[in-house]
Specification:
Layout: E1 2-7, H1 12-24, E2 28-31, H2 34-37, H3 43-55, E3 61-66, H4 70-76, E4 84-86, H5 90-98, E5 104-108, H6 114-125, H7 133-149
Parallel strand pairs: 1-2, 1-3, 3-5, 4-5
Helix pairs in contact: 1-6, 3-4, 5-6
Bound molecules: D-ribose.
The site of D-ribose has 9 residues, from helix 4.
């Protein structure tokens, strides 16, 4: 599984913690470093850049971090085919994979501490879409999304 990660200027420390953690676990993680390549870049362009790479199948999963995680989730969800949500607890991190089939998890460095963040990411990484009763619900999101993107 290829994982992309990025952050804005509010989450540089947590991104480093998570990159080190994932690399130590042998996860194939790529720090896109959009903010390093473009000084003064803001969370919308950083989140959009990662979400488009997922849409184009360059990566399988993505982690976006900002101050709260909220802005990153909002912008990632504006890319067609991409589902993202903010999770700061293990249960939500599992459900966003198992029930919602989201490719992107977002977090806020101003909300969560590094140790809990690592645990939440581990739960998210090891959870897969469960299908079953969730399949028609996710499909309905995809159908409604088509209406919205292609009215
Ligand atoms: C800081 O720019 C802050 O607004 C951002 O990191 C994020 O929390 C937005 O949702």
């Amino acid at each position: 599984m290829k994982v992309a990660i990025d952050c804005d200027d509010a989450a540089v420390n947590l991104k480093k913690v998570l990159v080190d953690h994932l690399k130590a676990k042998g996860v194939d993680v790529t720090d896109l470093g959009y903010g390093n390549s473009k000084e003064g870049s803001l969370y919308p362009e950083i989140g959009y850049n990662l979400a488009v790479k997922l849409k184009e199948k360059e990566f399988d999963r993505g982690i976006l971090i900002c101050g709260t995680g909220l802005g990153m989730a909002m912008i990632a969800n504006k890319v067609e085919g991409i589902f993202a949500g903010t999770c700061h607890d293990v249960f939500s991190a599992e459900r966003i994979r198992k029930s919602n089939d989201a490719q992107i998890i977002t977090m806020g460095e101003r909300v969560i501490g590094p140790e809990l963040a690592k645990t939440v990411i581990d739960a998210w990484l090891t959870s897969e879409f469960q299908g079953g009763g969730s399949t028609s619900k996710v499909q309905q999101m995809r159908d409604l999304e088509k209406d919205s993107f292609h009215p």
